[in-house]
TrEMBL record:
InterPro entries: HINT, Histidine_triad_HIT, HIT-like, HIT-like_sf. Pfam families: HIT. It comes from the Bacteria. This is HIT family protein. It comes from Rhodococcus baikonurensis.
């Protein structure tokens, strides 16, 4: 398997590491959305959410939460944080080893997500909720 994040985890590719434990590694993104943008990855390879061990999902979230707290209280000028995960090419996933983006935010940094131009009515929200709820069962 040719996975750049597995190579980083194995120490075969370089990375600027922020956090390292038995299950999780966090390192700086080489093409940051904002200054300080980093990635939190499970050490066990999973290409996407459908194959991610839920325990690893919980672990990467816990590490991202800890890093976000450190960003907010540390010396860097960081006023907020976005956590982001892309699952699937259409969602913007480029590296097929699950990773949680930790994106530091400051006013006017230019980063953002955009909503659809119109608010769907309640009937549409209810029917979409019912379809997703049905798929959960
Ligand atoms: P995705 O689009 O898959 O959610 O995010 C992949 C991220 O990995 C991108 O933000 C990209 O800049 C980052 N990335 C791609 N290759 C490397 C690499 O070799 N090293 C590091 N540190 N980040 C990478
Ligand atoms: Zn991998």
């Amino acid at each position: 398997m040719n996975c750049i994040f597995c190579s980083i985890i194995a120490g075969e590719a370089e990375a600027s590491v922020v956090y390292d434990d038995a299950n999780v590694l966090a390192f700086m993104d080489i093409r940051p959305f904002t200054s300080g943008h980093l990635l939190v990855v499970p050490k066990r390879h999973a290409s996407g959410l459908s194959t991610l061990d839920p325990d690893d999902g919980a672990r990467i979230f816990a590490v991202a939460q800890k890093i976000a707290a450190a960003m907010r209280t540390g010396p860097l000028p960081i006023d907020g944080v976005n956590l982001h995960l892309s699952d699937g090419a259409v969602a913007g996933q480029e590296v097929f080893h699950v990773h949680l983006h930790v994106i530091p935010r400051n006013r006017g940094d230019g980063f953002g997500l955009r909503a659809l131009p119109r608010t769907p009515n309640r009937a549409i929200l209810d029917s979409t909720a019912a379809v997703i709820r049905g798929a959960l069962n």
